[in-house]
Amino acid sequence: MNEEQLRVRLEAVDVPPSRLEMDALVRAGRRRAFRRHSAQAAGGLALVTGVLLAVPLIVAQTGSPPPVRAGTGSAAASAPASAGPVDRCRMTELPVPSGMKDAEAAAIDPTGRYIVGNDVVKQDFRPILWTDGLPKALPVPGKSVQVTDVNASGVAVGVVQDPQQEYVFRYENGAYTRLRTPSGSWHVYPAPAINAAGDIVINAEPSGKIEGEDSIVLLWKAGSTTAVTLAVPTEANAYDITDDGTIVGGMYKDGHASTPYAWDQQGNGRKLTLPAGQTGVAYAAEGNWATGGLWPSMAPALWNLQTGEVTKVEIPGPDVSKLSKEEQEKAEKRGGQGPGNAVNASGWIVARGASFVVRDGATVELEAPSGQTSKAEDVSDTGLVVGHATTAVDGENLGPRLWRC
Amino acid sequence: MRPDLEREYVEYVTVRLPRLHRTAYLLCADAFQADDIVQATLTALYVGWKRASGADNLDGYVHRIMVRRYLDERRRGWSRVLLGDRVPDLAGSADHGVEERDALVTALRSLPKGQRAVVVLRYFGDLSVEATAEALGCSVGNVKSQCSRGLATLRSALGAGHPMTTAESARDRS
């Protein structure tokens, strides 16, 4: 097959029809643009390049997963025991600093005292720290400053992105500290994580590479600004660090996650179990639990870090009963609800953007007023879930939210 | 957005939408994910339209947004989310799920994401090596090596034993 033949064949591929409609695209664009415009006191030019990756997606849902009462879902044999029945999680609004119109909560510390989140202005982030529910707009020492995690001491971490530079920061006692990468030019991704002691992990790939090629794992010990390169194979990626220093992530092959791993700080790794026929990676850990995703089932996974045992979390899909038979079959083939992105010390799981939390193998609804949809991001050991609410119809962000479960 | 600017946006998107959808489908081989990344791309484009429409290479800029979205694994898996509520009439058409209906789509799916993106942008999007590098945010050398590796894999996947019916019939038509 020569290049011209490949062109011809690519043109001839039978592509299924799109569901996107011009009118709906314009409507969603108008609402978003209007809100952003009114949120800006003065229009600054925003250069749109690498920052795009993390920009929130405005979408509408055709159907959200039906809430399932705890205990009625498929049982997960290895899930931790329940402390008591929880029917639903009550929503409260998180106040935002004045002038912020597109804020979302991103993470909560395990004790539930500190929450971090970001306002979005065009393509850029503006960091927020809540202490005991009171918001504070953090200083903005760069074009885009995104805060991604916080620990029980209120130490926050995130990424500063400028056209010329990009670096991980630690925010502590009202001041930013730039954390240095090894010599050379590195792109850090996707977001730094911090544990109780203050140890911070993230991945870095050489600038100019994509999808983690030749990537390394960086660890800044508490208080340090000099990174240690973890002694793990290149193209291993780390996403979280527990309070005992265990780092979780996975091995990648050609940009695809293949095997979930837990490492100690010397880089000694152990494989976490996978269900037969699945690949996977761990995205978050707390205490003895790690969560992440399984493919091709696209189901969340829950690993017991002591035993390495895995539970594939079966979640009921969206209500497809009103769809045609063909659509229902397609929905089945599409599989699960996406990876778990956050976990607490009791093994509760949050899948990013879900309107429920998984507790003891069953989904518990994150309550929202009529016409709104809940979108979860993180969960504390005290049973608090943070995220944001959107309009149910077109996914318009309504601001950061807290749910008590 | 001013009405005249919005008209420009609508005109641009109306013309490009089928092509963008095709590109997205070739990238992810899943109709739902394809809609998802196209929608995300075009919503971002609307918000930044005034600035973007003045860009030297608007198509390249749009490709860049879309490819970045596609490569971001952590945002995938949520493709059940769709804009609008129209359910296309698929009656009488083949099953459009992710199963292997076309040998080329199957072979593309076997490529690492970066190689797949390079092949699709170069040979379907007709982007130059430089424009592909810009869209992917990587070096020109990286595009060249990914491209040659991707082509080699496709050739072997589609090689002996796999009839090239689609290409042959397409050639016959032309």
Question: What attributes does this structure have?
Answer:
heterodimer; A: 405 residues; mainly beta; Methylamine Dehydrogenase, Chain H; 4-stranded antiparallel β-sheet; 3 helices; B: mainly alpha; Rna Polymerase Sigma Factor, Chain: A; Arc Repressor Mutant, subunit A; 9 helices
Interface with most residues = A-B, 80 and 91 residues
Helix content of chain A: under 10%
The protein's oligomeric status is heterodimer
Radius of gyration of chain B (Å): 17 Å
CATH architecture field of chain A: 7 Propeller
Q: What's the overall average pLDDT of chain A, rounded? A: 82
Strand order of the largest sheet of chain A: 24-25-1-28-27-26
Number of domains of chain A: 1
| Amino-to-carboxy terminus distance of chain A | 58 Å
Major sheet characteristics of chain A: 6 strands, mixed
Task: Determine the number of helices of chain A (DSSP H or I, runs of at least 4 residues).
Answer: 3
Alpha plus pi helix count of chain B? 9
CATH topology of chain A, by name, is Methylamine Dehydrogenase, Chain H
In short:
The complex is a heterodimer of chains A (405) and B (174). Chain A is mainly β.
Describe the model.
The complex is a heterodimer of chains A (405) and B (174). By secondary structure, chain A is mainly beta. Chain A contains 3 helices and 28 strands. In chain A, the strands form 7 sheets. A 6-stranded mixed sheet of chain A has the order 24-25-1-28-27-26, with no helix packed on it. In chain A, strands 2-3-4-5 form a 4-stranded antiparallel sheet, with no helix packed on it. The longest helix of chain A has 18 residues, at 22-39. Chain A is globular. Chain A starts with a helix and ends with a strand. Residues 36-85 of chain A have low confidence and may be disordered. Chain B has 9 helices and no strands. Chain B is globular. Chain B has helices spanning 3-28, 31-47, 49-52, 58-71, 103-109, 113-123, 129-136, 140-157, 165-173. The longest helix of chain B has 26 residues, at 3-28. Chain B is mostly helical and 174 residues long. Chain B has 2 domains: 1-78, RNA polymerase sigma factor, region 2, helix turn helix motif (Rna Polymerase Sigma Factor, Chain: A, Orthogonal Bundle); 100-174, Winged helix-like DNA-binding domain superfamily/Winged helix DNA-binding domain (Arc Repressor Mutant, subunit A), CATH 1.10.10. Helices cover 66% and strands 0% of the residues of chain B. The termini of chain B are far apart.
